[in-house]
Amino acid sequence: MSDDLPLTHEDIAEITAILENSGYRELDLSTRRFHLRLARGDGDDAGFTQEWQWAGASGAAEASTESAEADPDAIAAPLPGTFYHAPQPGAPPFVQPGDEVGPETVVGIIETMKLMNPVHAGRSGTISEVIAPNGAMVAKGQALIRLNR
Description:
The protein is mostly beta strands and 149 residues long. 8% of the residues lie in helices and 38% in strands. A hairpin with a 3-residue loop joins β1 (26-30) and β2 (34-40). The N and C termini lie far apart (46 Å).
């Protein structure tokens, strides 16, 4: 772990102590600046492992962080989480540029706290661009897909 983490070792120790006294096995914490994951090891006396990365370190394109408010043609993330283009690995994507969609068309899914949440187009149009990379951490309101009307 690098010393550049915006949380101190004491902060992480406090979060870990809270988890130890709960029934949860892991915590994924994402902010606009970083992503932190703590996971309990197997066994009664196993400790926690930690991983973190800067929000921009996931390989996401810089454009993927743009707000949908700045782009009226964008379909926005309804909640924060991990955005996926397809229902499962190896499956074809929900939509591709050139596809016609309606308001109820599922254009992707966002995984939040192990729950898969469908993202609907919300209006009719043609997909012009998929902005957010597959597997990218996204913030609520972030532009995911650009739709031409």
